[in-house]
Amino acid sequence: MNHFYTANQSIEFGLLVTLIGREARGQSYNAKLGAAWTVRNRVIRPMWWGKDWISVIEKKAQYTSMEPPSGKDPNLLIYPDLVSPAWQECIQAAEAAYWSDGTDPTTGADHYYDKSLDDNPPSWATALSHTCDIGALRFFRTP
Predict the structure, then answer these.
(1) If I label 11, which of 58, 90, 126, 134 is the partner at 20 to 30 A Cα–Cα?
(2) How many domains does the chain have?
(3) Is 55 inside a domain boundary?
């Protein structure tokens, strides 16, 4: 489906594509879509994590690949490669979540972490409801 974006929507969409690419570019399309839907789910349920696309994406200590440079996340230096098939999937996943095209594969998740952290999971994981695993990502929903 073709969508037209306002200037502000273009900025929101660009940030969402960048976030997905940095966080999930090596994952399956469904995992990329899941990461995108965590942002959408936060936008439609405004809380401490933000009230709109930009404030959710830029909220400190949430999506680490979007944090100010700290030297901790090498993904901070990754920018879209629009000819790469992986980045094309990031764009498709961002568009689907942004416009709510299709079904949320995470059933309402607003958090996730990579399974590589299973030995030392984020402290928030025990307080949230696990919704599903897609690829290397574990998804959770705030009650």
Answers:
(1) 134
(2) 1
(3) yes
Q: Which domain holds residue 96?
A: 7-104
pLDDT at 72: 66
3 state SS of 26: coil
Identity of the residue numbered 32: K
Angle of CA points 122, 94, 52, to nearest 5°: 70
Q: What phi and psi, each to the nearest 5 degrees, are found at residue 21?
A: -65, -40
**54-96 pLDDT, tens digit each:** 999 999 889 988 876 665 666 656 666 778 888 899 999 999 9
The 10 Å Cβ neighbour count of residue 69 is 8
Domain assignment present for 69: yes
Q: What is the pLDDT of residues 97-133, one digit of tens each?
A: 999 999 999 999 999 999 999 999 999 999 999 999 9
87 located within any domain: yes
12-14-15 Cα angle (round to 5): 65
